[in-house]
Amino acid sequence: MGRITERDRILSEPLSLKVEGSPEWCWQQLEGLRWAYKQVETAFSFVEESRGILRQHRAWDKLPPDTDEKYGDEDTMLRSALGVDGETVAARVTAARTAAQYAETTSPALTRKEASRIGGRAPRGVKLLEVYSRRKRTPAEQLTARIRRDHPDIHQRMLAGEFAHVSDAARAAGIPVGEKPLTTLRRAWGKLTAAERKAFLAEVARD
User: Fold this and answer.
1) pLDDT tens-digit profile of 94-137?
2) pLDDT for 53-67, tens place per residue?
């Protein structure tokens, strides 16, 4: 097993235990930005919000937290964490927001083949893949959207980098994940009384 670094240790601790504006707090906020930027097409508003928080606290003057040699400016910090500069981040956020707004005027049932024919109607500067935001979402994207809608507190913790996987955040929100119907049935069966089991079996037999 590899050695746990100081940076890993910082990220393993809850954001709520850190002092706002401290190097440790900023480091976890930067990790949240990194996580959100990976799915900027659906999390563009949170990318923008996280970047604003880091700017407010001039995080580049405090990070990295485990060395005296700091980033010194925002672009250097973003290149280190995201691989791109601030101008690129802003452009992708704008494109994602425009695509989301444009998608509201298109059919939810639009197929990829049909989408390829609307290039002339797409806003200038927006890639087709970004325009087609009504594509079928992956399970992880669906979970993220549900958590953002129903459990904003958990979603904020996701953005802060407290969860390694979306499924971990879903479990923290009380959303069952990765479970087959038969597994659910078996788990529920153990909680039934004898009378409830008898009634259930009788009902199944009638079906």
Assistant:
1) 888 877 666 555 444 444 444 444 333 433 443 444 444 444 55
2) 999 999 999 999 999
Cα 142 from Cα 133, distance rounded (Å): 13
Convert 156-201 into a string of H (helix), E (strand) and C (coil). Answer: HHHHCCCCCCHHHHHHHCCCCCCCCHHHHHHHHHCCCCHHHHHHHH
Round to whole Å and give the CA distance between 46 and 51. Answer: 8
φ and ψ of 205, to 5 deg: -60, -35
- Of 120, 55, 128, the closest CA to residue 90 belongs to 55
Helix axes 40-56, 23-37, angle to 10 degrees: 160
**pLDDT, tens only, 133-146:** 444 556 777 788 88
Residue type, 144: T
Using left for φ > 0, alpha for ψ between -120 and 50, and beta otherwise, residue 131 falls in: alpha
* Cα gap 139→128, rounded to integer Å: 22
Residue 93, both tokens: 């956020």
Q: What six digits make up the tokens of 177?
A: 């994940």
DSSP 69-117: ----SHHHHHHHHHSS-HHHHHHHHHHHHHHHHHHTTS-TT--HHHHTT
